[in-house]
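>> received
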Amino acid sequence: MSTGKQVWFGALPLVLAICASAQAASDPEQAILKLMDAAFEAVASGDPDDWAAIQLANGTSISLRQDPANPGQFVQKMMSNEAMVAEAIADENEYLERWLGEPEIMIHGPTAVVWGAYEFWINGERSHCGIDSVQLIRVDDDWKIANWTWTVEPDACPPAAAD
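>> returned
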């Protein structure tokens, strides 16, 4: 007859293996979320070194802004990531970007996509909300932003939560 301790210790290797497997499966997602946190910090800092550390200079940045003259239509602005950073650091405004909820992450080998709703603040006032669609690639065991597409929708924001 076995005691509860014997059953527990006998099951311990299985429990540890399951926990290790779950941790290994979540590591890429955690690394990607950490990268996106760094991207939002780079938005706030405007420091080109912050951007250079997390993205490919020859990737693309595409904004899709609602056209005020044509409801339901979007005006596209596409530039290299490097040009987007140069434009952003020339600006004196203070920026804050954050997720509205949890973004979706899809990973397949060395490529991943992050998709989620965000809100954007300029000089302490909420400017707009939208969707971020960020394409990532793994370079030397680190995730980097290859392409970033976002919508700019001033009328798409939920009521602001109290901070």
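>> The first strand starts at residue 55 and ends at 66.
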